[in-house]
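Hi again,

Forgot to attach this to my earlier email, sorry! This is the prediction with fe (ii) ion bound. I've pasted everything inline since the attachment limit keeps bouncing my files.
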Amino acid sequence: MILVAQVSDTHFDLGTRNTERAQRVMAYLAELRRRPDVIVVTGDITDSGKPEQYAEARMSLQADLPVLAIPGNHDERAAFREVLLSGTPSDDPVNQVHRIGELTLILLDSSVPGQSGGRLSDETYLWLDDTLASTPPDAAVLLALHHPPVFLHSPIVDTIALEDPQRLAAVIAGDRRIIGTLAGHAHTAGVSTFAGRPLLIGPSTASVLGGEWELAPPERVMDYGPDPSVALHVIDDDHRLITHFRSVPMGGWIASPY
Ligand SMILES: [Fe+2]
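Structure tokens for the complex follow:
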């Protein structure tokens, strides 16, 4: 089996709270008896895209296994590239591919500079086509992006979801190797389907955003009470995708309540 850990919406903001919560989740992953093969961070790494916030993220998200990150609407591509990825600053989409055994993990940059809503650019779709064309025919492919491509009945997020999801759905529907899609952005653990495949929404380590049944703006929008959470995606030998969600108590593991 292949184990993919999904951390999301860490919102590093130079304060101690969000940093400690992200570090606690990273420590939880580091202590697992069976370590993940890769950690994917599905956007909103920082709260406002400042280079110092990426420096904080880089320090807190380091692990002795691959950690792959894509931008969200709170990120800035140039600082993201320069500080987090040690690359040359540019505003081009930060798309990445990572192969682990039979799994090909494709990370798509759905951020749009200056906007909160998401879109995959023509450049990203061309890159996705090329990447799929160079992926082995017997591979299992998992996509990841920040903006969910379906409405989640989460009023804040649904107004800034992925634009033109039909275009991505057509790619998925046309490729049987794609076993599912991971997204962030919603600050809630969630499950749906998209183009007939699983769509898994990874929870935020920072906060929980209400659905329409609990949201009462302006007071009750974001809940900072719950523990940080993480998603663990298993890809088994039959390329079946199984997802577990874990909240990670800030106080650590409790073996017995007695
Ligand atoms: Fe976020």
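Residues 2-247 form a domain with the Purple Acid Phosphatase; chain A, domain 2 fold (CATH 3.60.21.10). The helical segments are 16-30, 51-60, 77-84, 122-133, 155-158, 165-173.

That should be everything now.

G.
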